[in-house]
Amino acid sequence: MKLEPLVKEHTYHIFNRGINGETIFKTDENKQYFLRLADKYLSNKGTLYAYCLMDNHFHFLLIVNSDGDTITQALSNLFNAYAKAFNKAVNRTGSLFEKHFKRIRIDDESYLRRLIVYIHLNPKHHFDLDFTAFKYSSYSAILSDKETKLMRDEVLGFFGDKENYKFVHQQKNDLLEEKFMLE
């Protein structure tokens, strides 16, 4: 399978999961370490719009700031560094992630908005958790006034303002809950 190359100044949904659906984050410390590695390896090569780390998978929505080979190598280094540390910590060997990280190029702003909401609602989708309080998602960081490397202003600009950002997320959440009540 030929993977689509990453292209500078384009936006991508990057995601992967544990091999065979296995857990890749057993603790909060694992998730914190993964985010620190992401900051280290992606610095100046890619900038995040949104992210979410679940126990057995993750989502990044990022814009590529460097040439495709550079960002691809940075992502590979991130995943390899994390896998080595995780394997050592839990006394396991072998691949942690599925073979290649998935990537979908995003060229449509409407789809980008829906994808941001989808990424942030992952805790609700998978574990019926309150997505607004989930610590390993960019939802709250976008609303915060604390310093962040996320593209906060751009994300809020896609929704108009903070109030509409929250409103759209809640609307999608309400639709999700209605879907589950019907099943």
TrEMBL record:
Alphabetical GO biological process terms: DNA transposition
Molecular-function annotations in GO: DNA binding; transposase activity
SUPFAM superfamilies for this protein: Transposase IS200-like (SSF143422)
Record SMART domains: Y1_Tnp
Gene3D superfamilies documented for this protein: Transposase IS200-like
Top-level taxon: Bacteria
InterPro entries the record matches: Transposase_17, Transposase_17_sf
The Transposase IS200-like domain, residue ranges: 7-122
Protein name: Transposase IS200-like domain-containing protein
Taxonomic lineage from the root: Bacteria, Pseudomonadati, Bacteroidota, Flavobacteriia, Flavobacteriales
